[in-house]
Amino acid sequence: MLQIESKLPAQGVTIFSTMSAMAQRLNALNMSQGFPDFPAPPALLDALAQAAQDGFNQYAPGDGLLSLREQLAQLFWQRDQLHLDPAAEITITPGATIGLFSAIQAIVHAGDEIIIFDPSYDSYAPSVKLAGGIPVHIRLTAPGFHVDWQAVKDAVNAKTRMIIVNTPHNPTGAIWSKQDWQQLIELIQDTNIAVLSDEVYEHLIYDGQRHYSALSFPELRERSLVIGSFGKTFHVTGWKTGYCAAPAHLMALFRQVYQFTNFCGVTPVQMALANFMTHHPEHIAELAGFYQAKRDLFNAGLKNSRFQFTPSPGTYFQNLDYSAIRPDLNDSAMCQHLAEQHGIVAIPVSVFYQQPPENLRLIRFCFAKKDETLQKAGAILSQV
């Protein structure tokens, strides 16, 4: 019998697939996986149909349609006064996860150590391991989930090759301040450490705060790769379209790997996005306010509940602390209880850790939902 050893022996099915399957099986309200239950902008859907009808159905350039890359470069200029060369410094990818994977494969060699802040998106560590690297997990400091910079300094050594940043942060919504970035700059400015910055929720920041991209800091400009997502920004997660932005010398390394993980992104999707961004700049300008209203509606529905929380600073996720309700249950058991007994599905935050804290009592809800879905969720949770 053929025997092949797994490269990821401890890796099972992702929690997102597990919880979505549970929601379907129990006919429960699915507040777990991060996708909207409302439609995409009609003009964007019209642009997709038009692109397909106009014949844009064959291979796009491997690095992405130049018109879409130019729209991204314009966004970086408007927000950060950062000039990016669309041809040499931006690549369109079929989703952000493959961008993360390709960046890690391009930079990480066997034996390199990669710093990952826990809780963390579940693709980081497996991608590092597949490249032969060694994930070094550092816990963010609860309840605000800030970086313990002394712990980072203690972890950095000659083998450290990359630090993975995620801001706004999934699953907690925390955002990096300018001071955080300055701390990172001071720590790595005289090293050979690259920065991989996962910024897929870059436009979803609330309460008047702002997003700082890794590339916006001159001291990090030549050592950083930024990953973004059109799916998060335009309510089309199923279109699986993202991007990588990086200085030309790092982009060359990225493309060497990327060309063998995927030939190109979907052509009519790229055409539609470029068209929509050209004619509807108000969409991104209004996005933070749109989602902040949904966050506030969801949280308002919890005012009579026993859950405790701080409004999420970013992303479209809200964490709830259930310590006052069922402290005897760990978060996975609590999610199981909510699904089976109350008909609502969330994500246990512990799955985002290599080694979760024993007293963690947090569960994650997605508020990228219709208002009626959010109101229904609030009514259910207020009865728990």
UniProtKB/TrEMBL annotation:
Entry-linked Pfam families: Aminotran_1_2
* Keyword Methyltransferase belongs to the record: no
| InterPro entries noted in UniProt | Aminotransferase_I/II_large, Kynurenine-oxoglutarate_AT, PyrdxlP-dep_Trfase, PyrdxlP-dep_Trfase_major, PyrdxlP-dep_Trfase_small
> What cofactors does the UniProt entry give for this protein?
pyridoxal 5'-phosphate
- Signal peptide limits: none
Instruction: Give the GO cellular component terms, alphabetically.
Output: cytoplasm
Q: Which PANTHER family match?
A: FI04487P
Query: What is the similarity comment for this entry?
Result: Belongs to the class-I pyridoxal-phosphate-dependent aminotransferase family.
Protein name per its UniProtKB record:
Aminotransferase class I/classII large domain-containing protein
Task: Name its species.
Answer: Acinetobacter bouvetii DSM 14964 = CIP 107468
